[in-house]
Amino acid sequence: MRKHRIALFTGNYNHIRDGVSNTLNRLVAHLESNGFDVRVFGPWTPEPVITHEGTFVPVYAIPAPFRPEYRVSLGFPETERAVLREFDPDLIHIATPDILGFRALRYAMKYKIPVVSSFHTHFSSYLKYYGVGFLEKFLQAYLFWFYRNCTHLYVPSPSMLEDLRSRGIKTDLRIWSRGVDTSLFHPDKRSEAWRKSKGFDKDDIVVCFVSRLVWEKNLDVVAKTFQKLKDRNVSIRTLVVGDGPAMKEFSENLPETVFTGFLEKQDLAEAYAGSDLFFFPSDTESFGNVTLEAMSCGLPAVVADASGSSSLVENNINGYRADARDVDSFTTQILQITENHEMRIKMAKESRKKAAEYDWTRVLDTLISYYREII
Question: Is residue 315 classed as helix, strand or coil in its secondary structure?
């Protein structure tokens, strides 16, 4: 018997390291280790930043409007279509409903190949950051059509599932969560030597923000909240982990904040564990991988009350949620946790306990079960 064949289409597989590319590379490795044959189709880039998993079929792409570090394929050329025809997939998984994803969906419909999609990015919430919010209703109509033609739509959390249902999405919605490496992201990675190397004293309370530095991650709210915290409590120090096109302007607004730049693996785990509280006000996430990593390291989390985080953070249990633009509420909540040692320790334990539910193997096996149900 031949292996089951999965064709995966994505808007980012190896040109930007983010939550989507990391998740999909991990998925492909898991599929291949479980006997699947996989082909990944995505935008070509002249300088890949990720050593990708599996067999990648690059599709010619140009820099994306507004975000030139990302790339977008403007079609599905015959050369790559021939690769797909020869591969003869049993199922097509489209991770990004962009132009390439649209072409993949039309191909699947024409040849009657089952097609599924996964929800990684809250695209409509990005429009306001580029001054084109008026396009939201047109994008919504396109997404309704796109997902209506998919057998399954995989969403990362119950809160996101309910959000999409409330918007009128009728597709068969299934939970496909995200996972975390709980052995890598662990409270034991806390190091006083690491804290000292960053200029933190033993008694400092470190509030960290981890993200790709782009304005749609609510960086202005991060800056305003950090400034208020500095004015209210001199023991609080602030830390930013990440890099991106907004780095220069953002860092100029926070001269007393420690910026590490991009970190990964062991270095990233040390940064989380070396902090005392995680702050993440972004409301554009479909899940919040960084929130889960911080929780796994035993950090209380103060986050935006949005669909990406509300399934992870429970008020008064392992942190707090607030409106994504409410700087005063974020400041009050962070101070409440940081100034109450017993509360902080209790919430830290609850965060670690919650993160333990998101084992990567179990998460990826769930998706395989969905695939097999269709095939």
Answer: strand
Q: Domain 5-179+359-374 falls in which CATH fold?
A: Rossmann fold (3.40.50)
Q: Which of 110, 116, 80, 78 is nearest to 97 (CA)?
A: 116
CB of 96 within 8 A of CB of 120? Answer: yes
pLDDT digit string, tens, across residues 329-350: 999 999 999 999 999 999 999 9
The CA distance from 76 to 99, in Å, is 8
pTM: 0.81
pLDDT tens, position by position, 94-142: 999 999 999 999 999 999 999 999 987 655 555 455 555 556 778 888 8
The architecture of the domain spanning 187-355 is 3-Layer(aba) Sandwich (3.40)
Could you tell me where in the chain the CATH 3.40.50.2000 domains are found? Answer: 5-179+359-374, 187-355
Calpha distance 11→29 (Å, rounded) = 18
Q: How far apart are CA 114 and CA 84, in angstroms?
A: 14
Residue with tokens 């334990």: 349
